């Protein structure tokens, strides 16, 4: 544990505090000057600190009890200089374990909990050391990693060799190990930025960032200072609904205070904040201002929209339930819902009921008990509703369904019947309140609820739960239950108050309100009932007798558990799509526009014509917004009906929508994604596979079982074995021919000729009389490989008959050898040797054992479930793809990794396929060695190498010139998914490139650069549209997905977001290693990243986020800069 005394040098702890909040660092500096009073610590820190010390002591005692050689360096808490010298001396002596060592250098100090000797030589001798730090939490956090990296750097300095691993000893007894290189570039950059900013904050008159409230405030010893500052300043951030990015834009426009916002002229625009948003915030600030000094804050009724606000409020029922979860997000790997709290009416008054769960098994039992109780109550009171506040309760229930694979049909029925009523959404659409927030407790003064006086000042539920876990005192549970009961009663009081507002709304706005009515239970289809029965039977056969804790599974037990969960994969995948569709139907036009990144809202009619038999086609313009729609079926959320998106013109912001006569004649106001695809063939195939596991076990040859167990490929006698070395095509052909009811992975990194290789494998199989299947996730990918097969067949002089299965003309592929259609070619024309189709065909019972070898292209995007479902069609399977490029996207929550791609599953923790498990195409024919080197080291274990000739590739222009990596830093603020600043800079760079610029290809020939020689890539469609508006007509601009498989001399990648706080769609989306890999690896000569410099120091809230940002930092470290 790092020292915290304020008079010590800088430490990893000081760094993590700075990352949480710059203002906190400033206040720490002021304290050292004696300019602040005594620091106050919230009880959370004291409780966690005490528990953390006990955890560390227990680990130390365990080492001592085991008779380990432990050096207690901090027994007398010596001076830092002396302690650092004793640490170095103990390491030189080769002592086994050093407790509370000290590192002191260049104004930094750190106290690692344990240094443990390992058998790896160093300058010390035949040994070296790795750090093991004790942490109370059950999972690693970024602050822990910063400490580990600092300690690891110091170990490298003292022993002359960098440690291979660094470790955390976690609160649940587990040890988490990490590779330092996964984080070093980011940690070093953050540390350097911290030193610069710390020096600035130490200077007289330093002005720190304003103390906007952040997540870390609840754990900061200066929270009261900042809270007082905001109130003293009457800061604009006190306005409910003002996010930090909006606050910064308001301040840039001269609006610093809540009163200033409240009195902002109606005609005053705030740059980059929509006028409607400014109006909403102005009204909110005004209401808060007028509410000051009143015992009960004011509220205003909002004009109702159809089926929104109070129109979504049901009438009371004697069976109504008010529900609230208490959960611990840090329990185990996935958290624990430890209390199901319920208030319901009985004998004329409210009754509270608590269901507790202190283990995963108890959580499952409590979940089943609560759902069964609610189902019984619903049968007695068909008009009942379950009221809750905010979305956590329904999200947690869906998570529990996925986690425990139980009560799925019952929860589906409850959601479909709209039994759950979120009062938060209704309240936000119904009223504006003169409060600083719209949390339940913040609104209680408005609707007049008084909490139990004994509980108002009590410590929070989660902290009581943590204390219970420590000492087992049941009084902690009583306190939690009392607090939870108040939450349920508060929800009950809010519902009654909102119900009383309905007549006021009808009177004020002169229109009757709708009422949310109970939905009749929908009979389940015969197919759904049969599937449920099949799943229940599988559960009994596969899960009976397995350990309650899945971490105790042996290999056979894990296979049975995986097989069961895979059978439910497609069902789990479809649920979030339906849930999102129905949730979207409850949003307002404004919420769809501002908060939904997938839908289009605010559509303006430009024209309408009637076509066919009463169908209408609308031409519509949409306002600038993020969306994720492509031509095909869509949903109209405000109308609750289906339509077809015919086309999208992003440059003109125009869409064309068609709707049949039975779906109404009104113009669409908004469109969103439609429901999920139907997957009966895949589901049936996976059930057959799981039943096979239950019947015959896993100790038998089968390609599906090889995938399930990630087994090495099995070959017929005489087949050449796998080797670690350059790929020999003839040897690979023989291995594919020799597959013995097994699977071979051929991993193809960027530019290695995966499609070229796959086509020649297919032709070789055809030449040897084998029946070949081709599959991918899209018709475009399938057609691409079939076309390559045609070319390879021409070269080899091989003839064959092929069939591409498709239902639409635009998905067809036709040639002299291949015909397309929904049905196969006439049998009398001869046998079909090559069949190309999607998973829907290969998983069908009709396709069982229909080909000898199935080639699965773009396998990195194929789910494990779909891959196993389709193995039934073939004797052998070849997976062509790369999990390090565009990844499989899962919608659902899947247990035990069953939602991942097949290649992720097979490769496990490896970035490249191990030589004994498959084949790596390691020769890149595309990238200059400097580009390839970066990609190889960061993504492919250093195994990817460029072929000779790639080194001559270069670009020369008045602007960007040379080869390799470049970083262009563009300063901007508060951009989320669109940066005009980056678009302008890219337009300038493109103009310079085309101003007499030239490029040299692998053949050594120099030629002029053209518009087609530059790819401009962005992660967000908003930025793509922004770029298209500024670049010449015909420029190759698009998201990463569009350009996979393509290449160009120059690639410009615009990241668009201003900072980690501004990232749209999450850190995992923008900083995706796969996305950066695909973008950079399109480049033959120059790969250029254009971004805000703040992204390189983005604050990470998870360890995975740190890994992602590290990749960008490694690019920056390797790149030349252009300013």
Task: Describe what this molecule looks like in 3D.
There is one protein chain. This protein is of the alpha/beta class. It has an 8-stranded parallel beta sheet with strand order 26-25-27-24-28-29-23-30, with helices on both faces. It has a 7-stranded antiparallel beta sheet with strand order 16-22-19-20-21-18-17. Strands 1-2-5-6-7-8 form a 6-stranded mixed beta sheet. It has 5 domains: 12-202, no CATH class; 309-509, Nucleotidyltransferase, domain 5, CATH 3.30.420; 587-673, Elongation Factor Tu (Ef-tu), domain 3, CATH 2.40.30.270; 694-921, Rossmann fold (3-Layer(aba) Sandwich); 929-1121, P-loop containing nucleotide triphosphate hydrolases (Rossmann fold, 3-Layer(aba) Sandwich). β7 (166-169) and β8 (175-178) form a beta hairpin.
Low-confidence stretches: 1-8
Strand percentage lies at 15-25%
Q: Which CATH architecture of the largest domain? A: 3-Layer(aba) Sandwich
Task: Estimate the global geometry from the Cα principal axes.
Answer: globular
CATH topology of the largest domain: Rossmann fold
Biggest sheet, spatial arrangement of strands: 26-25-27-24-28-29-23-30
Mean pLDDT: 91
Please outline the major beta sheet.
Answer: 8 strands, parallel
Query: Roughly what percent helix?
Result: 40-55%
CATH homologous superfamily title of the largest domain: P-loop containing nucleotide triphosphate hydrolases
Backbone CA Rg? 31 Å
Q: Helix segment count?
A: 37
Number of domains: 5
Structural class estimated from helices and strands: alpha/beta
Tally of extended strands?
41
CATH class term of the largest domain: Alpha Beta
Distance between the termini: 42 Å
Protein name: TM0106 family RecB-like putative nuclease
Domain YprB ribonuclease H-like: 322-498
Keywords: ATP-binding, Helicase, Hydrolase, Nucleotide-binding
GO molecular function: 5'-3' DNA helicase activity; ATP binding; hydrolase activity
